[in-house]
Specification:
There is one protein chain. With 100 residues, this protein is mainly β. It has one domain. It is 13% helix and 39% strand. It contains 2 helices and 5 strands, in the order E-E-E-E-E-H-H. Strands 4-3-2-1-5 form a 5-stranded antiparallel sheet. Strand 3 and strand 4 form a beta hairpin. The radius of gyration is 21 Å and the shape is flat. The N and C termini lie far apart (46 Å).
Length: 100
């Protein structure tokens, strides 16, 4: 029996010509081929399509010079500030004595 599962991915696009950014969602269907490999099919708006990182013209200037990022790249969030009791001195000390 072959395993199959579906997923929803959001991709962010950035035009390198005009600087426009937008995001689009894709339904992804994964199917185990029974030989250790995997087949992946993408759908956009209910219609089969190519992979999200190919053939995407800019929605503003219609340039083909577009870069695609999967959504987690954009939603990284703010880096928390270092707390005064973060233990950095302990880590440096342990590295000096080759204990870590």
């Amino acid at each position: 029996m072959r395993n199959a599962w579906s997923d929803h991915e959001v991709w962010i696009y950035e035009c390198l010509r005009c600087g426009a950014t937008w995001e689009e969602g894709f339904d992804v269907r994964h199917v185990d081929d029974g030989h250790g490999g995997e087949a992946v099919a993408y759908a956009h708006g209910g219609h089969p399509c190519t992979t999200p990182w190919t053939d995407h013209p800019c929605c503003e200037c219609h340039s083909g010079n577009v870069k695609a990022f999967s959504a987690p790249w954009r939603k990284s969030g703010r880096v928390p500030e270092q707390r005064p009791d973060s233990g950095l001195e302990t880590v440096i000390h342990l590295r000096r004595i080759h204990a870590w």
